[in-house]
Amino acid sequence: MQDLREARRLVAQSSGAPEIVFVSVDGERDDVDTLRQFVEPFGEGFTGLTDSPERVQKIAAEYSAVFFKGMATDTEGGYDMQHTSQVYLIDAAGFLVAVFYAPPLEDIVTTLDWINRQS
């Protein structure tokens, strides 16, 4: 998320800032307020979304993203979510344009600038 914030800042200087949408895969714990508190520190242009585990699973499957609830972390029912960490670049028309797997910041910025020049 830090790299996405920096990429957004750098791209905004040359070709317009993208919107960043964080999709939580933990609809059981993450409500609107929790997501707002998570994305708010990253600043303008960040939105947090989630839904029921079933709905998020369906969306994740469309992008070959995987997530599951991990083993218990304490006796009070705590758990970690295990998930892939891809970053998906979706254009304004809703089409998947690129998928990043732990890319260097420069790769994200270069790709965003290239896409903005194509528009």
Largest sheet: 2 strands, parallel
CATH class: Alpha Beta
Query: Spans of 5+ residues with little confidence (pLDDT < 50)?
Result: none
What is the β-strand count?
Answer: 6
Proper CATH architecture:
3-Layer(aba) Sandwich
- Cα Rg: 16 Å
Number of spatially distinct domains: 1
Order of helices and strands: HEHEHEEEEH
| Envelope shape | globular
Mean pLDDT: 89
Mind sketching the topology for me?
Elements: H1 2-14, E1 20-23, H2 32-39, E2 46-49, H3 53-62, E3 67-72, E4 79-83, E5 87-90, E6 96-100, H4 105-118
Parallel strand pairs: 1-2
Antiparallel strand pairs: 3-4, 5-6
Q: What's the gist of this structure?
A:
The chain is α+β, with helices and mostly antiparallel strands.
What does this structure look like?
- The radius of gyration is 16 Å and the shape is globular.
- The chain is α+β, with helices and mostly antiparallel strands.
- 38% of the residues lie in helices and 24% in strands.
- The strands form 3 sheets. The protein has a two-stranded parallel sheet with strand order 1-2.
- The protein has one domain: Glutaredoxin, CATH 3.40.30.
- The chain has helices spanning 2-14, 32-39, 53-62, 105-118, and strands at 20-23, 46-49, 67-72, 79-83, 87-90, 96-100.
- The mean pLDDT is 89.
- The two termini are 25 Å apart.
Q: What are its keywords?
A:
119 residues; alpha+beta; Glutaredoxin; two-stranded parallel ribbon; two-stranded antiparallel sheet; 4 helices; 24% strand
